[in-house]
Design brief:
Shape: globular
CATH architecture: 3-Layer(aba) Sandwich
Oligomer: single chain
Bound molecules: 3-methylbut-3-enyl trihydrogen diphosphate, magnesium ion
Number of strands: 6
CATH superfamily: Decaprenyl diphosphate synthase-like
Radius of gyration: 17 Å
Helix content: 40-55%
Order of helices and strands: EHHEHEHEHHEEH
Number of domains: 1
Number of helices: 7
Strand content: 15-25%
Distance between the termini: 38 Å
Length: 221
Amino acid sequence: MRSTFSSGIHVAIIMDGNGRWAASRGLPRLSGHRAGAEAVRRTVESAPALGISVLTLYAFSSDNWRRPRNETAGLMKLLARYLLQEADRCVANGVRLEAIGRRDRLPAALIELLEETERRTAGGDKLLLRLAIDYSSRQAIQDAAAKGGDLSQHLGPDVDLLIRTSGEQRLSDFLLWECAYAEMVFTRRMWPDFSGEDLAAAVEEFQRRERRFGAVTARTA
Ligand code: IPE
Ligand code: IPE
Ligand code: MG
């Protein structure tokens, strides 16, 4: 199943800075999250043309439950709205949507929408869009270890390029195993301002890097 999407690169994005984007405009944090959903749309749209076949977006971390209830509830509503509004477009554009993370703590309506969207988009073969919701990489690794055998079999594909917006430079419990050899690009851009051009610039930067995977290459010999 994964091999359908192995032709391009796997880009993972920590979409950070919605709150600061809103605060700098005197708006409530949820306005930042709403604007962030627009940036998700733009990013998904521009990904295939940049040679991206797998896109993993960090939408809500398990630690994000520590935020005020009105913010977490608002984020859950926004996620549901995104799925409602984007499912048709995903089907039309060959985008296969898959959620990673815990489901048991999400609102029932959101779980239903996730399952329905996963079903409806299952035939997509242009882009695998993985939405990390109530996601903790440590938890995912622990769950994989409990299953036994090769952990990679139970976890997602290796990340080629990891992007984090907003100037922070940390992983915040995102894809710890899968980022073993990921190239990292940190940008000061706040997530709601992130554009297709920013994504293209990050991919260009990635293509200039030399990945060695521990070996000696022509450039280092
Ligand atoms: C990222 O933006 C979105 C989520 C974590 C859900 P933040 O909400 O973390 O924005 P900042 O970091 O407070 O600016
Ligand atoms: C990580 O961002 C989670 C998401 C982007 C969904 P946070 O803003 O929650 O991370 P910290 O708290 O700054 O590390
Ligand atoms: Mg943040």
